[in-house]
């Protein structure tokens, strides 16, 4: 019995010592990792301040060329900007050096307070079998963000030699909806003035047909014909999956947090120009009428000789998340028609973080 107790005590001591040594090793590794990242951050500080100085000097030079300031004033401003950026580098590097010195003296500080949050570790003695860790060290600069895209508005078609006033579709009753997810990537390294937005979106284009008409497939052609009964509703809808791409231009606000920088477009003017391309997924015609006083609904799913490939140009202008949005399909709605029809839409667009 005494032998069993001694073995249990000895095994417990081994586990405690092994666990303590593993924690010390983990803290050391975390401290070293943090120091490496801070050293890399020092390089990015110098690069960022130099890039900002270059941009400021170019702005001053342009003011001099336009005659807004004299050469003496330009040289003075350049000197002031250079001194400011040099002082920024000195102060910011000093802060980082102090953080490095603190971590070197207190490696356990980083394990308790800083970036790596080890949620779960499986180990035997000093040997770590498995770990799940989250690195919460902020990234210095994030060039790509993502947003929810939603747009809604009016839709109709443009026909050759025919104005919208003569359209066979209701202007107020016809509409579109667009829903998707987009990514926004900064094009320039040290400026957020130009971004490229791209993603995936569903487009629903609906046409409400006037004058008791509906679409009929006649072989390879699709044409409007008068319905034999009195139609209460006659709607035609296409659903497409597209890839929208826009180059977006507009100012941003830069915020420097010391260990990271972020650009914000909140309440800032923007304009986007680009287009979209994709596939038509489905086509549906909905009819509503009465037979002997009873309301009847009919939903017809067919190809209707619509074009499978959809593509067009689009653009928007607005402030912050909100903008006015317009798109125009370069592809015709139907194939093999005497008069080509192309969807045109105007509405409101939201890109929500």
UniProtKB/TrEMBL annotation:
Residues 1-22 form the signal peptide. It comes from the Bacteria. Keywords: Signal. This is Outer membrane protein with beta-barrel domain.
């Amino acid at each position: 019995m005494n032998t069993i107790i001694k073995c249990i005590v000895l095994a417990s001591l081994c586990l405690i010592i092994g666990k303590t040594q593993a924690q010390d090793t983990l803290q050391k590794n975390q401290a070293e990792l943090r120091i490496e990242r801070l050293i890399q951050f020092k390089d990015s500080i110098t690069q960022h301040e130099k890039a900002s100085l270059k941009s400021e000097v170019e702005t001053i030079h342009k003011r001099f060329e336009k005659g807004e300031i004299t050469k003496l004033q330009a040289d003075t401003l350049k000197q002031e900007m250079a001194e400011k950026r040099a002082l920024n580098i000195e102060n910011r590097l000093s802060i980082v050096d102090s953080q490095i010195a603190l971590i070197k003296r207190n490696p356990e500080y980083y394990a308790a307070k800083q970036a790596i949050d080890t949620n779960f570790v499986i180990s035997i003695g000093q040997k770590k079998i498995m770990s799940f860790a989250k690195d919460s060290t902020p990234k210095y600069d994030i060039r790509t963000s993502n947003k929810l895209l939603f747009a809604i508005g009016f839709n109709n078609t443009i026909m050759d030699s025919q104005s919208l006033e003569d359209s066979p579709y209701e202007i107020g009753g016809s509409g579109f909806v667009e829903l998707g997810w987009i990514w926004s990537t900064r094009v320039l390294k040290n400026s957020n003035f130009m971004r490229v937005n791209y993603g995936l979106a569903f487009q629903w284009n609906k046409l409400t047909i006037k004058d008791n008409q509906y679409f009929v497939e006649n072989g390879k052609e699709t044409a409007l014909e008068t319905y034999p009964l009195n139609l209460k509703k006659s709607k035609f809808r296409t659903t497409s999956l597209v890839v929208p791409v826009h180059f977006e231009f507009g100012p941003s606000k830069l915020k420097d947090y010391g260990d990271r920088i972020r650009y914000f477009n909140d309440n800032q003017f923007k304009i986007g120009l680009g287009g979209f391309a994709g596939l038509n997924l489905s086509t549906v015609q909905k009819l509503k009428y009465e037979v002997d006083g009873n309301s009847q609904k009919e939903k017809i799913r067919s190809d209707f000789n619509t074009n499978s490939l959809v593509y067009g140009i689009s653009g928007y202008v607005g402030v912050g998340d909100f903008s006015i949005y317009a798109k125009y399909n370069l592809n015709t709605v139907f194939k093999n028609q005497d008069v080509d029809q192309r969807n045109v839409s105007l509405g409101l667009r939201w890109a929500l973080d």
